[in-house]
Amino acid sequence: MATPTSTTPESTTLPSSASSLVVRPGRWVDGWDAEDPAFWQSTGRRIARRNLGWSIFAEFLGFIVWQLWSIVVVMLPSAGFALASGEQFWLISLPSLVGATLRFPYTFAVARFGGRNWTIVSAGLLLVPTILLGIVVQNPDTPFGVLLLVAALAGVGGGNFASSMANITYFFPQREKGWALGLNAAGGNIGTSVAQLLVPIVVTLGAAGTLNIQLAGWMWVPLILVAMWGAWRFMDNLSTAKADVAGAAAALREPHLWLMALLYIGTFGSFIGFASVFPKLIADQFPAFSTFQVGSASLTLAFLGALVGSVARPYGGRLADRIGGARMTIAAFALMIAATLALILTLPLGNFWIFLACFLVLFLATGIGNGATYRMIPSIFAARGAATAGEAHSVGTQRKASAALGLISAIGAYGGFLIPQVLNASQAATGGYTLAFWGFIALYAALLAITALVYAVPRASLARHRI
Fold this sequence. Notes:
Elements: E1 12-13, E2 22-24, E3 28-30, H1 37-66, H2 68-72, H3 85-113, H4 115-125, H5 127-136, H6 144-153, H7 156-171, H8 177-203, H9 215-218, H10 221-234, E4 237-238, H11 245-252, H12 255-285, E5 292-294, E6 297-299, H13 303-323, H14 325-346, H15 352-388, H16 395-412, H17 415-430, H18 434-455
Parallel strand pairs: 3-4
Antiparallel strand pairs: 1-2, 2-3, 5-6
Helix pairs in contact: 1-4, 1-7, 1-8, 1-10, 3-4, 3-6, 3-7, 3-12, 3-16, 3-17, 4-7, 4-10, 5-6, 7-8, 8-13, 11-16, 12-13, 12-15, 12-16, 12-17, 12-18, 13-14, 13-15, 14-15, 14-18, 15-16, 17-18
C-alpha cells in the first residue's frame, strides 16, 4: 500500500478504505478525513502519529531555544560579562515577548505553507539564535544591545508552539484531539526543563574551572538539523488545512475569549514566566545553591520547576475532564495563592530547600492550571453555541473554538514577559521580590473570583452549563 512516505513524483492514490487519499509531489495529501472511522483505523492513525512525533520533537527544540537565555544569563558573570540586574531581566524576558507576538502569524502559517513545509522552516529558523548565541557570548566586551538582539531572536522558538498545535489539530479526529494536543503541548513545555538541566552540565565539562559557554548555543545545532531532516522526510502537508480568518475574527468578538486569555496569562503565563526567571531567582537569593558540582560538571536544580509544571499539565486536563474545568482552575489558583504566600512567609528564614519546595508547588499548580484552563475553552464555546444558536457543536462553533485556542495561547504567552518585568520592578523599587509576590497573589485571587463567578455558576449566557 502506498502511503505519504512515498517519494514517487507522480500522484498516488491509496487503495481500500484510503481510496480517496491522494499524495502529490511535495508530500501534499488530498482527501484527508480523520473523522471517517474506517480511514482512521486503516491509514489515518499511523500517519497522524508519525506527524505528531516529529512535531513534538521540533516544538521541544523550539522551547529549548526560546528559554536558552534563562539559564545563559546567570552564567554570563562567570564568563566575564558585567551586566546589571535589570539588564539580565531584559535578556530573560525579551524572548518571551517576541515569542508571544510571533504566535499570531505562526498560527496561520500552517494553512498557508503546509504543516511539513512550515515545520522545516520554523525549525531551521532556530539555527539563527543558537549559532549567534554561540558567537556573541565568547567576547565579554560584546555590547549589551547585541546581546539583547540575539536574545530577541530566540523568540522564534516561542512561535513554534502555535504552528505545531495548529498543524496537529488537522490530523486527528475530534475524539482524539485532546490527547494529541496534550502530548504536543507537554512535549514542548518540557524543553525548558531540558535546557536548564543540560546547558550547565555541557558548558562546564572538561578541566576544572573551564566554562565553554559558547556550547550553550552550538550544542543544539545537530538536533535542529535532525528535526529539519525528519520533518522533510516523514511529515506531510494536508490540503484540507485552511486558514480560518473568519473564525478568528468571530472569536475575537467573543467576550469569553478575552476572559480566558486573562486566565491563561495567570496559568501558562505564570509557568513560562517563573520557569524563565527561576535560575536567576535562585542565584540572587541563594548563590551558594545556584549550582552543584557533579564531578567536573555543574548542575542547577532550577530545571525541576519547569519539569514539574510540564508533567502536571496533562493531568490538569484529565482532572478537568472528570470534575470540570472551572472547578479545577479554581483549585489551581487556590494552590498558586497558597504556594506564593508560603514563599513570602518563609523567605526570611533563608532556607533554600523550603524556597525550592514552595516554588515546586507553585509550578505544580501552574501546570495543573494550564491543562484545566485550556480544557475550558472548547467547553465554553460549545456552551455559547448552545445558548445563542441552539447547537453546541455546529461547524461555526467549532471554528470559533479552534481559532480561540490559538489566539488564547498567544496572549497567554505574554505572561513570560510580564512576570520577569514585575520582579525586576520590585527589585529596583524595594531591593527584593516580596512586593512582586504580593502582587501575584492579588492577581491570582482576582482570577479565581472571575472563574468562580463566571464559569463555576450555571448561567443563561452559557446555556446553564457548568464549565
